[in-house]
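Shapes recur. Our protein:

. . .
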Amino acid sequence: MQEIIFIKAQKMLPWLLAMALSACGGSDNKIIEKAPVAKDPVVTDPEPAASGARLLITKPGAQDNVLVFDLDENKKIAEVSVAGTISGLYASPSYRYAIATQGTAGIVNFIDSGVEWESHGDHGHLHLDEPGLLSLQLAGSKPGHVTKNGDQIAIFFDGQEGVPAAVRTLTETSMAAGEILAEYFDNIHQHGAAQAWDKYLITTARDGSIAPATTLPSMVRVSEREGSHFHEKTLVSAPEFACPGLHGSAQNIGFIAFGCNDGVLLFKPDGEQFPAGKIANTTRISSLFSHPNVVSFVGAGRNSNSDPMALFAVNPAIETIAPIAYSRTPRAYAFAKEGELFLILDTEGGLTALDTHTWAQVGARLQVTAAAEGAGQVSRLTVSAEGDKAYVADIGAQKILVVDVSHWVIEKAATINLDFAPGMILWLGSSVGGGADKH
């Protein structure tokens, strides 16, 4: 196992540095010394240090292989196989683990990046181990949406005719121990989602009597965790809070949001209470994106498949939904620079950055891929934990391209060349420590 040690300090005098070296195990440790800082630290003469950043790339096939690349050395360090085709790849709260859903096979696997940040207050240890599959594997009907809040992860299983929907919640600790935290079972199948909030679970609820029949829910249920199960606390079924065609959910520091045909259904948790509100909109919102440092949600949707995809800034604090000016066809989205920017990858392989304070475009659109998507191709986007690097999968060219978000340029030397058309990609590492520019 490789271990890298970082020291955090605003003023590092020689004697203090010596003490830090002694406390952390001797002079063999790699130390990064920094000059006095005001707001943005400036690295002075750092020693080379590993960031621990790793990239997961799926290699599609009869069963998917997942390749793990060390981004410091730009080389493959591991390859793991899962039982089915991966339909979703999500990072755990600390970015150490990947949650790989296989909707058709009805399986969820968990991949350990091998990167662990051990905090010691004013400094920490970055441990680097071999990546691999965890022993935990979940089975259920049609695993779909995966969401996270704090240290909790909620995985929604849609179910099917005769098999009701279910939710399983985990933490990284329970995941590593091969256990779930708690589970919830509905009484009907649905294409739904769930958001964990402390000891509560906010799940979608479907009315099976709605005609014409649809698997989309239209209500929300609040349940409370008791031991390893959840028990219903409230079903939000009042007509003023109806959410027809419910799809897409997200949460930030103060609100939980669900997308509806006619707007957004909001909850503002207050202790044990979950007061609801509704913001009307004439365009359906079917996807929602959020960041802990951003007040507004980003909503995406359209009223029919023949309409262009529209983007909206949903501000729950003042209960407004405002259109975001964007004229291309979006393919993927991600917050960057600790929530200061919202990135949009379009189907022509271009990257656009929006200022999350004004929702105006920042700089020029950056053409990343060599060409637009071809038939059957889907470009992919993933962003590092702090949002300083963006990674774009160029399916046609069989490459992963790296964008320096701060300087808004493609790092050509960091390009990952492959001998296959990549599927999904996901950045993993540490959201706390690592690298010469983050302590």
